[in-house]
Amino acid sequence: MHNVLGQHHDLLFCTCADRICRRAGKGWARIRLEKSPAVLTVNRIPEADSWRKQTCRMERERERTAEDTQLVLQLTNPDQREGALLELSKKREAFTDLAPILWHSYGTISALLQEMVAIYPLLSPPTLTPHASNRVCNALALLQCVASHPETRALFLKAHIPLYLYPFLNTVSKNRPFEYLRLTSLGVIGALVKMDDAEVINFLLQTEIIPLCLRIMETGSELSKTVATFIVQKILLDEHGLEYICQTAERFYAVSTVLGNMVAVLVESPSVRLLKHVVRCYLRLSDNLRAREALRQCLPDALRNNTFTNVLKDDVSVKRWLTSLLFNLTESKEWSPRRADAGKRPLRWKP
């Protein structure tokens, strides 16, 4: 009997002669004695199966982590880097610890920066090939992981790595490799601002990110325009960002003019995804006293009438934003101490 059931187990002999039960790890295994004493049927109880599955899953996770870590190490080898970039960019969503491993592993971030700097000569004159664009975009996808991870985001900013992206955002070629490069670069900046971190906004305001985004908002593809407008929107939603843009008439009108041009294009080619960010930018601008006064004069008529009614019929949030915007602009133009912004009289912009 011990040879059949194995040793080191507590045997429980049931009153029924045809049943033997034994304790096995965290679960129970029930062994039924059939007509022939030599034939045993094992019925596993679900708890034991669950425990075994969890153990196997943990083992597979360890194996995958070891494989992914090996790919990170290959990034520092020029001969293996391209393949490692491709594989890691595919796995970045499932590899939860990828950002800290990339940042803290020796030479890895330097290798990613080398990939970016290597294509600078291809930007002007525009000779970037699809293969080169795909390769550097795989590197940018890994940097996006670093930018969005709470453990590495501050380190990413402190190293001023976003500045390496600006030559890509400054390109104007509409060829597919360049458009893909701009979009992926915008994705890295978008990952930064998505976290609603004041430190990120303060860093970006010290750079040329707003003019770069404004140009893409006018000339890029719809997807690039959407991401660039999202970045401007997140800057505006920050108090310091709103104050910065509304500090001078030049900055305000640079933003409002581009938004107005986008509305004109959206009248001809509607896009709810893009219009949503445009309306949100206008609504946030209306929170500033000086900007509100200016918007009463320069807000596009298409946002005042029913031009986008059919486009927005299924989007409750955007309709609510647009209603709030129009309400802000139709309030009494006279300053009143009962207003929420009492104490801040409308001032003229600095010359």
Automatic annotation (TrEMBL):
<dbReference type="InterPro" id="IPR011989">
    <property type="entry name" value="ARM-like"/>
</dbReference>
<dbReference type="Pfam" id="PF04078">
    <property type="entry name" value="Rcd1"/>
</dbReference>
<comment type="similarity">
    <text>Belongs to the CNOT9 family.</text>
</comment>
<protein>
    <recommendedName>
        <fullName>Cell differentiation protein rcd1</fullName>
    </recommendedName>
</protein>
<dbReference type="InterPro" id="IPR016024">
    <property type="entry name" value="ARM-type_fold"/>
</dbReference>
<dbReference type="GO" id="GO:0006402">
    <property type="term" value="P:mRNA catabolic process"/>
</dbReference>
<dbReference type="GO" id="GO:0030014">
    <property type="term" value="C:CCR4-NOT complex"/>
</dbReference>
<dbReference type="InterPro" id="IPR007216">
    <property type="entry name" value="CNOT9"/>
</dbReference>
